Amino acid sequence: MGKNDTVSLKERLMQLEEANRFTLDALDAAASLGDFQSTINKLLEPSVILAETRKRICNLIPFQATAFYLVNEETNEFVIRNAQPKNFGAFIKKEVEHLIETGTFAWALGTKSPVTVTTQQFDKKMVLHTMATS
pLDDT by residue (tens digit) across 55-106? Predict the structure, then answer.
C-alpha cells in the first residue's frame, strides 16, 4: 500500500466518521424537535406514539428499517413492537437479543444520546435510542 492509498483511506475514514456524527445528531434532533417529548406524552395509545415517533425520525433519516421495544410492565422484559418493514422484525429481534446478552443494550438505555452499533455480521449498523414516556 502506497502513501497515496494511506492518505485516501484516512480521508475516507474521516468522511465516514463525520457522516456518522451527522446521523446521530439528526436522530437526536428528531427526538427533541420542538416540544416533542411533552407532546408525545399526551398521547395515550402506544401505537400512536410509535407511529408519530417513526414519522418524525424517518423524515430526517431514511432508515432501511425501524423497530421499537416496549417494556412489558408485568415481566419487565423488552418486547419488539411494530418493526417496519415487517420482514426485518426477526433480524432486529435477533440482533437486539445479542445486544442484551453482551450488555450493550443496557448500556445504551443509560445514555441520553443515540448509540450506533454494528450487527453481528458487520454488514449493517443499528442506532439505539431510548425514549421514555409515561
Answer: 888 888 889 999 999 888 899 899 998 899 999 999 999 999 999 999 999 9
How far is Cα 119 from Cα 1, in angstroms, rounded to an integer? Answer: 29
Cα–Cα distances (Å) from 7 to 1, 17, 18, 20, in that order, read 10, 15, 17, 20
Whose cell is 414519522? That residue is: 55
79 and 90 in contact (C-beta within 8 Å)? no
Q: Which long-range contacts (CB under 8 A, 24 or more apart) does 75-81 make?
A: 78/105, 81/46, 81/50
- Delimit the domains of the chain by residue range: 3-128
Question: Quick check: 52 and 34 in contact, CB under 8 A?
Answer: no
